C-alpha cells in the first residue's frame, strides 16, 4: 500500500522468483513471519478476496496470485517447506549472524560497513542527525516523514557485542 492505495501493478509482489532476484541485487527485503506461517502465508500468496490489483504494462496480464517456484505445488506446500528450512540445523547454527545484522553489533558503525549492512540514514531509529522538529522547511519535513513511512526503519539496536552461536 502507498498512501492507502495499492501500488502500481508492476511493483506489487508478483512472483517469489522475481522477489528473490531483486533481493540479490541490493533491493533488500526483510522476510516477514507470513513466509513461515501456513494460514497467514497462504493469504499473502493468494488473492482470495479477488481484489482488482490492476493490469501489468505491456501484455504481462492481470495481477492476481503470487507466482510460486516450480517445486511448490500449492501456497501451503511453499510455506511448509519455508518453515522446515527455518527450523533446520543449518539455520539454527547460523542464526546469530542474522541477529548481529538486524539487532546487534553489525547493525551500525564500522562493523555494519564491513558487513555491507548500511542503509539510508533516515531508516535508523534515534539518529542524532534526524530531528523532525528542527526541519523548518515544511515541504522538506513532510518529504522526510513520507520517506520514513514508505520505506521503513531499521529496528532499534538491542546488542552491541556479537551474539553467541547456538550451543549444540
Explain the layout of strands and helices.
Elements: H1 16-23, H2 38-45, H3 75-86, H4 89-102, H5 109-114, H6 138-151
Helix pairs in contact: 2-3
What report would you give on this structure?
With 168 residues, the chain is mainly alpha-helical. It has a single domain (9-151), classed as BEACH domain (Neurobeachin, Chain: A, domain 1). The protein has helices at residues 16-23, 38-45, 75-86, 89-102, 109-114, 138-151. Helix 2 packs across helix 3 (75-86). It starts with 15 loop residues before the first helix and ends in a 17-residue tail after the last helix.
What's this model, at a glance?
By secondary structure, the protein is an all-alpha fold.
What key attributes describe this structure?
flat, mainly alpha, 0% strand, Neurobeachin, Chain: A, domain 1, 168 residues
Please state the CA-atom Rg, rounded to the nearest Å.
Answer: 19 Å
* Number of β-strand runs: 0
Overall pLDDT confidence: 85
Report the major sheet: none
CATH topology: Neurobeachin, Chain: A, domain 1
Distance between the termini: 42 Å
CATH superfamily: BEACH domain
Strand portion: under 5%
CATH class: Mainly Alpha
Q: Provide the succession of SSEs.
A: HHHHHH
Low-confidence sequence ranges? none
3D shape: flat
Helix content: 25-40%
Overall domain count: 1
Amino acid at each position: 500500500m502507498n498512501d492507502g492505495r495499492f501500488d502500481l501493478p508492476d511493483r506489487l509482489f508478483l512472483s517469489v522468483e522475481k522477489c528473490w532476484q531483486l533481493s540479490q541485487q541490493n533491493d533488500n527485503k526483510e522476510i516477514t513471519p507470513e513466509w513461515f506461517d501456513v494460514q497467514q502465508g497462504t493469504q499473502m500468496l493468494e488473492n482470495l478476496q479477488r481484489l482488482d490489483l490492476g493490469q501489468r504494462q505491456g501484455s504481462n496480464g492481470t495481477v492476481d496470485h503470487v507466482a510460486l517456484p516450480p517445486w511448490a505445488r500449492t501456497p501451503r506446500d511453499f510455506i511448509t517447506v519455508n518453515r522446515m528450512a527455518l527450523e533446520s540445523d543449518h539455520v539454527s547454527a547460523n542464526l546469530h549472524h542474522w541477529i548481529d545484522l538486524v539487532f546487534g553489533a553489525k547493525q551500525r558503525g564500522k562493523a555494519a560497513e564491513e558487513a555491507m549492512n548500511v542503509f539510508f540514514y533516515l531508516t535508523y531509529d534515534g539518529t542524532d542527525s534526524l530531528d523532525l522538529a528542527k526541519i523548518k522547511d515544511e515541504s522538506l519535513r513532510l518529504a522526510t516523514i513520507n520517506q520514513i513511512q514508505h520505506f521503513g526503519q531499521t529496528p532499534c539496536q538491542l546488542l552491541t557485542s556479537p551474539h553467541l552461536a547456538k550451543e549444540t
